[in-house]
Known about the structure:
Layout: E1 5-8, E2 15-16, H1 18-33, H2 39-43, H3 50-57, H4 62-80, E3 82-83, H5 87-96, E4 100-105, H6 109-118, E5 130-132
Parallel strand pairs: 1-4, 4-5
Antiparallel strand pairs: 2-3
Amino acid sequence: MIYKAVLFDxxxxxxxxxxxxxxxxxxxxxxxxxxxxxxxxxxxxxxxxLRSAMEHYGPDQVEELIQTYREYSLVHHDQMTKIFSGVAxxxxxxxxxxxxxxxxxxxxxxxxxxxxTLFNLDQLFSGNYWCxxxxxx
Length: 137
């Protein structure tokens, strides 16, 4: 079977951002509530939007929580983000075979491109083939 396109999720598929996500959540809730979320509580929101997590854990300060989380993530992103083994090679092979590759994520386009650029993958994903989930975050 010949494929014309392959869609990838970003976090947990291309990029290993688990440590960054956990650290950003902990920083955010320590700063705003002087409390520490457990890894289990944080993992429950992996795959969901940042907004939905903040609405669940801090409905009284959603915008402030999102801002703190994003500021922390921006500062620590490059040091705490890794790429999964074999991913770059696979994406390059798909690209060279003429298969369209696209990212589907709830992250902002700027953050997504930053992560892809960190590992020299940005040129393998056309701007026309980037999708963001429908959400307010």
